[in-house]
Amino acid sequence: MACSALPASPVKHDDWENDTSAENNFKDERNDYQQPHLEDVRFVMKGLRRGGHDIAISRAISQIRSIRAFQIDMILGRLRIELDTAQDSVKAAADKLRAATGYTFEQYDLPRGPTLDLVVDNATEFCQAQKPHGVIEIEPLERVLSSQKILRIHYNATEIGAREIVAFYDALRPSQNIRWVCALPQLSTTTDSKRYDNSRIIFIINSILVILVILFDFLPFEVFKNPLFTHTSLGLTCICQVLVLLEILPGIFRVLLHSKMLHMDIFLAISTTCACAVSLTSYISRLRGQPLQQGSYFALSSLCGFMVLLYRFVSEIYGHTAAKLVSFRHLRTAEVHLVTSRIANATPNTKIISLPLLQYGDHFVVPPNSRIATDGLVVSGGSEVNELMMNGESAPVAKGYGSVVYAGTLNKSGRLVVKLSTLPHENTISRIAAISESTILGKSKTQVLADCFVITLVPVIAFIGAAISVGWMIILRYHDHQSWMNAAARAVISSTLIIVMSCPYAIALAVPVVVRMASRISLQHGIVVRDTQKLQVARNVTDVVFSKNGVLTRGIPTVVKAEFHKECSNEITQILYGLFKDRQSPIALAMVEWLGIQEMDNQQTDVTDIIDIPGKGVEALCTKGTTKVRVGNPRWLGIDEVESEHTLVCVEVSGNHVATFRLIDHIRTTAAAVIKRLQNRGINVHLTSNDNASVTRAIAFAVGIPPSNTHHSFAPSIKRDFVQNLQKKRKVVMFVGDGTRDSVSLVQADIGVQVNHNLHIHSAHGSDNEINNHVDATLMNPSKLHAITILLDISASVNRRIQFNYFWAGVYNIVAIVLAACTPWYCTIAPQFLLLLCNPVIGIQPIMQAGFSLGMVNFGKRYREEEREALHETREEPAFQLYSDHP
């Protein structure tokens, strides 16, 4: 959920300059309106309970002025805020959040680069000690474990390893009790483990007590007719009610004190307490020899409290499970079998160490039926590995000598010896988890309306319960001529059933569980969805606009011909080599490759003041800053462009056209099939390119895009205007392009899909080609264009499940309230038991199951089979261009 708070208009500075007293009086106000310094901060919320509390928390957080925007993830138990550090520091913001909500907030920030967290006795002595070569910084953390201090050591993993650091300090300071510890606050599974365990213990104790009460009340054994068991039932019922209050009262006090809103837990506490009071009344009436008409209410009262705890416990189970599924971090292994010595043709000797103590150069053993600790290269052994989390395919992949294996994947029956290639902080599972946890958790308009409806529904249900209770009291007293005591008892039980049976927060759960699971499944198929709202929008796409370069073509151009218009070709090649040798764009790589195979000396011309001009080219100065060089497309250089089947890259030195290079690229094998699938869905497909007409039309013809939807000579700004014009026609536009050259179009589109061209992992925070924070989704593997159709399929499935959840939650609440309201007409108490027992099963289970069932759908199976057939039947043919948009 996102919410913004904007300050009021500032006071004019002229008034302060003319009045010194005003300057003193308004000193604080002037500080409030200084230029904001916004920082993205993430917190783990400790002690957070699921079940509608996000609405109360949102209301409380929105009152803090320094927080400009925020998002709450109830599944992972975390908060992401946009903090104005000109008003509050991170620590001050955490204190205000704790005061506003009653929960504890701990900053969660994964460090960049390798770190090692150590627990020491004397932090000052440790920090002042000599540092080994390779240790960059020692950072004291605020957390304290018992009486010991936690220090975070930042180090260069290529110069020193984690075990070497521990050994160095053990030898340097033997008096210190040094040990490794995971000091980072963990998301999802471990954040709420204590709360989960407490809920489970309370629920188990309550279940045992309720079973005893039911036995004493209903089993037809004479021994249970003894008054002693009646006294025992009363005591057990009261204990059950105390357990219920212990479970829900802390949340009630938080909501009342901090959010000032009515929460369903308040009415649950009141109604179950009233039911317990009815049991006490029936007990007193029995002692007086005037038992109530329906007998003992012990079983029904205790069962009402039991259902409250069961509902909360079921919510915790589903939330705990969902957090594990979406986090990915639970796939990490805690320990690894490190190879200590190897003998040819023999099983290597190993020892078990903690995962963070791995270092470069290590070999480790992967036993059968265990997860792979980190990315690496198989050097011995053979097996099959389940890479479902990587590619969405459940079929195991054969691995042997020279095969690459990935962290978190599951080894099957064989035994593998793996050479480490990436440390745990930078491996595949860490990177995927970091991407998943950085998802923007915005709320759609539908969910915002649902939350508002829930806030309104809670007091409405309470009012309905009270009104029906009063109505039944009057009917039973004056129509059925029952005593006031008996009428009141039955009426109170009816209102209690209404409140206990209703499940308004099932409506609030209709979206988050489904969307979070869909985000995880998208990631399995190579789609990083940063804004989860787009998962509900994608199914409505009417137009898909492709940027040609690196999307429909492979992005690996080659120079097929060079034409020099001056005699100084050797000088030109030296200038070009100096310009492109350190650049990583596809055109630059193609030029360097071509220059490398030419017969030229090893000299190069120094080039300075290099400026990239997106959609046009690059310019620089050479020969000690006196000669201007421009390399780019002919239109930018003012050169007459002739029709050509190649991409043209022209070179201009001091205003003279000195050379022209012709490049080609290949169309992706799957491009035509993906475009055909989109067109079969009734989606209009467009192609935009900054290249010449011949190249653009040739590629459009090859992939099946009609000429009317093919647009050439489109600079980045023109592409954005084209998308905007489609939107003015009430089209829902998806733009698929490069994150740098097409950034303005990606932001403008309803759904912007960035194609990531660099999959090499350098840290848990990203790769060389950082994901654009402003795009809605990122296609991690550009060769798998079918991920676009998978995204549309996931979106359609998400919306079907959300609609089902809303429908089910609405129907269930209506039926439950009606049935509970009619309970005084029942002849026996059995139907009331049946209603209560159905509450957690019928109310919340289908909603949660609808989200989890997404994981059972194989979205990419059909597309993968089609692509395998295409790869066998066709070969990639040269297209006629690439990357003239940005040499």
TrEMBL record:
Name assigned to this protein: Heavy metal translocatin
NCBIfam families: ATPase_P-type
Annotated InterPro entries: ATPase_P-typ_cyto_dom_N, ATPase_P-typ_TM_dom_sf, ATPase_P-typ_transduc_dom_A_sf, ATPase_P-type_domA, HAD-like_sf, HAD_sf, HMA_PCA1, P_typ_ATPase
Compartments where found: Membrane
Domain P-type ATPase A: 351-434
Spans through the membrane: 201-221, 233-257, 266-284, 296-314, 448-475, 487-515, 806-826, 832-854
Cellular compartments per GO CC: membrane
Region (Disordered): 1-32
GO molecular function: ATP binding; ATP hydrolysis activity; metal ion binding
This protein's UniProt keywords: Membrane, Metal-binding, Transmembrane, Transmembrane helix
Naturally occurring in which organism (per UniProt): Periconia macrospinosa
PCA1 HMA heavy metal-associated domain mapped to chain residues: 113-170
Domain of life, per lineage: Eukaryota
